[in-house]
Amino acid sequence: MERKMTSLRGRVIRPRSMLQESRDAYEFHEKCGVLPLWEKHSRPVLIKAQETTIVEQNIIEGPESDIYRAWVNSVIASIINYHLIDYKALSPNNPIFPPALKDERVLQELQVFGQLTDLDRKGADLSEYIPLLNNGDAPLALLAKIVDYAITHNQHDILKDFVSTIPHPLFRLYPSLKNARESMRSDAKAGMQIYAPLAELFGHPGIAGDIFRHSFNVHYPDVYNFVIEQLNDERIQERIYFTQNLVKEVIGKVEAKLIKEGFSCEVTPRWKKHEGKIMKKVRSELSEEYTKSEESNTIPLKEYISRRFESYSITELHDIVASRVVLDRYNGDDIDKMNDEQKREVIDKAKKVIEDNIEMLIYSSGRSYEYDHKFNNKENGYRSHHFDVKPLSVINATNFEMQLRTREWHEISEHGKAAHFYYIGGDSEFVRLIQDAYERRIYMFRKAA
To answer: Are 361 and 250 in contact (CB under 8 A)?
Structure first.
C-alpha cells in the first residue's frame, strides 16, 4: 500500500478509475470464459459496497484530499472484482492478469479472502481465523467478505453458474450442484456466527440483517417463511405504516420540546426492523419461551416453534418500529462532563419530555395505549432509558420503542462491550480481537467524511 502512495516527480500516484477497473474485470472474466460469474456475483457485490460506502467511488476518483483512503477503497474494489479466482492460482507474473492482479497488496488480500473461505467451508474453529489478522495489520478482505455474504449468498439461483465437471485453471468451481449447496450451508453458518456480528462492528447493521436473512433461509426456513409471510400480510403492513406515522409525529414533538428547553440532541428513527433481524428475534424469543415451558420436556424446539406460529405475530415484538434520543449538551454544557447530581437532573428533564409526549398520545387516543419505562444499567456498561409503548386491542398499531441515552452511553452501546456485535451472534472474545485489529480502520471512512 505504501508503495502506491508515493509521489513520482511531485505527482501523487492515483488509483485507476472505477470505470477502467470494471472494464478490466469484464474483459478478464470474458477471456476466461466465466463472465456470468462476474456479472451475477461480483458486480452486484461491488454495487452494494458502493451503496453502503464500503467502497467510496468519489474518493477513488478524487483522491487528492486523502490518498491513503483512496487506495484503501481501490483495493477493496479490486478484491470484490476478482474474489472468485482460486487464490492458489494467483501469480503476479501471469501475462493475462489485468493491472489490479499484478499489485502485491491486492494479491495478498485475495489470498486472505480465499483462506477465509476455506475456513468458512470447513466450519473451522474461531481460533483458526486469528492468524489471518496479521498481528494487527487487519486485512481489507474481511470488509469485502461481509458485503459478499450480504448479497450474492442471498441468490440461490446463481449456484448452477458455479458448477462445472471440468476444472478451471484459475477459478474454483463446484463439481456438482450438491457440493455447491453444501458449501452454501457452510457459508450461511459462518455468516450467522462471524460475518453478521462483524458487519455490526464495522457500522453496517443493514448488511448484518441481510446476512441473517440468508442464514435463516438456509438453516431455519420455517422461521424465514413465517416472517416473510407476516411482513407481506396487508393487515400487518397497515399496522406498521400506522405506527410509523405515529412515531414520526411523537418524535417530532419530542425533539422540538427538547430544543426549546435547551438541549442539543440527536433524534433518530428506525422505521422498521430489518427482516433478517426480525427472524433472529422471533426465534430467540420463542426459544426462550420454549425453555420455560413444560413442553420442552415433551416436544422438540422446532415443533414448538411451528405450533406457536399459529397464534404468534411479529407485531408482538417491542421494537418493530423504534426511535432513539441521544443527548449531547444542555444550555451549552456537555452533559457527560457534569457531576452525577447535575447529570441525573438533566436526564430526568429529558425523560419527562418523552413521558409527557407518550402520555399525551395515550390521552388523545382515548387511552388506546399503555407504556412501560425501565432504566437498563447492565454489567457490560450498557445504559439507556427504554420506553416500550404498547397499543391495546382496540387500535390497529404495533408496539414501538423509544430510547434515551447520553452521548457517552450511546458510544458504549455502539462500540463498547455493550455493542450489538457482542451479543448478536458469534463469540465475544473473537469479536474483541477483530475490533482491536481494526482499531485504525473500523470507522476511518465515517471519521474522514
So the answer is: yes
User: Fold for domain 223-418?
Assistant: Beta Polymerase; domain 2 (3.30.460)
CA-based nearest residue to 2, from 55, 72, 53, 52 = 72
Please name the amino acid found at residue 180. Answer: A
pLDDT band at residue 437 using 50, 70 and 90 as cut-offs: low
Q: What is the pTM of this model?
A: 0.83
Q: Could you tell me where the beta strands, DSSP code E, fall in 331-437? A: 333-334, 369-377, 383-391, 400-406
Q: What is the DSSP string of 148-170?
A: HHHHGGG-GGGGGGGB-SSPPSS
Quick one: pLDDT at residue 110?
95
Torsion of CA 354, 410, 443, 284, to 10 degrees: -90
Reported as half-sphere exposure (CB side, CA atoms, 13 A), residue 121 has a value of: 12
Q: What is the pLDDT of residues 30-83, one digit of tens each?
A: 999 999 989 988 999 999 999 988 898 988 888 777 888 888 889 999 999 999
Cα(265)–Cα(279) distance, rounded to whole angstroms? 32
